[in-house]
Amino acid sequence: MKLRSLILFGAGIMTGLAIARKMSADEPEVLHGPARVTAPANPALRAVTSQAQRMADRATVASLEAIKRARGAIRERLAEEPYDDVNWN
Fold first, then answer.
1. How far is C-alpha 83 from the geometric centre of its chain's CA atoms?
2. Which pTM value belongs to this model?
């Protein structure tokens, strides 16, 4: 009885390891992005690319600042609630 339980326990461990190995394997259908980004060899193209990146970074910062201002304005409007005595229940 003990030997049979030990064999079943071992078979369960082996099955679990086999399933874990299959689940952690890479899928061949899944596409992976580039491992590293290379800079263009052409100096003019490199300058244009870096300038475009700087403009995109500035636009991101400006967008985030606009969102923060809008949230602040919404909070101020909600704080000025003229209907404090109204029961909404």
1. 41
2. 0.42
Encoded amino acid at 71, one letter: R
Contact status, residue 39 vs residue 46, Cβ threshold 8 Å:
yes
Query: CA 6 to CA 31: how far, in whole Å?
Result: 42
Round to the nearest angstrom and report the end-to-end CA distance of the chain.
68
Q: Report the amino acid identity of residue 24.
A: S
More confident residue, 79 or 37: 79
Whose structure tokens read 């003229």? 82
Measured in whole angstroms, the distance separating CA 74 from the mean position of its chain's CA atoms is 28
In contact, 61 and 55? CB cutoff 8 Å: no
